[in-house]
Specification:
- Helix content is 33%, strand content 40%.
- The chain is globular, with a radius of gyration of 19 Å.
- The chain contains 3 helices and 7 strands, in the order H-H-E-E-E-E-E-E-E-H.
- Strands 1-2-3-4-5-6-7 form a 7-stranded antiparallel sheet, with helices on both faces.
- A hairpin with a 5-residue loop joins strand 5 and strand 6.
- The protein is an alpha+beta fold.
- It starts with a helix and ends in a 7-residue tail after the last helix.
């Protein structure tokens, strides 16, 4: 078992090393290709794998002090098999794409996260669009590689330049997903 663990660890290090050695342009190209594949998979999800989509809806009523809010988080996932010993596989669900729509009064925010195929649960891309009162939109795009943030593009002068909030949201929602989707697994 120890040998298998070391072999897997070495393999993961090699994948990350190869990915880390890619130029910025190559990393961005890789992320954009992953995004296109994920969007195709999401489009096909309803037809071919409706059981690989989970929607979480959170609402509160207008109590006079705060306007009504509605938050809808969509998780698109696939089965992930992990091998701990030869011939012994444990499977769980791993999110490859996630969206969030948040509405509070006249505020509308839409967000997306794309997760690495090699390391599900690790965001490689995030997008945020906030509808403004004047009809304009503030958009931010974040691209991450093995070494951290590769690039950030935004027309919002107040955008989180490092993408920490987007990473935090991704982590928080993935924790909720894992507690729900993988609740029958031991150790999770």
């Amino acid at each position: 078992m120890k040998r298998l663990f070391l072999t897997i660890l070495l393999g993961l290090c090699m994948v990350n090393l190869v990915h880390a050695q890619l130029s910025k342009a190559e990393q961005l190209k890789y992320i954009r290709q992953l995004y296109a594949l994920a969007k195709q998979k999401v489009a096909q999800n309803g037809k071919q794998a409706p059981d690989k989509h989970m929607e979480l809806v959170l609402c509160n009523k207008d109590d006079g002090a705060c306007p009504a809010t509605k938050e809808v988080v969509n998780f698109f996932f696939e089965e992930v098999r992990e091998y701990y010993e030869p011939g012994m596989a444990l499977s769980g669900e791993g999110v490859y794409f996630m969206t969030r729509k948040y509405t509070c009064g006249d505020i509308d925010i839409y967000q997306e996260w794309l997760f690495d195929r090699e390391d599900l649960g690790k965001p490689v891309f995030a997008y945020q669009c906030q509808q403004q009162n004047d009809g304009s939109q503030l958009e931010s795009r974040y691209y991450w590689g093995p070494g951290g943030l590769i690039e950030m593009k935004s027309n919002d002068r107040d955008a989180d330049a490092e993408g920490f909030a987007m990473l935090r949201y991704a982590q928080e929602f993935l924790e909720v997903f894992n507690k729900i989707a993988n609740r029958n697994e031991s150790g999770k």
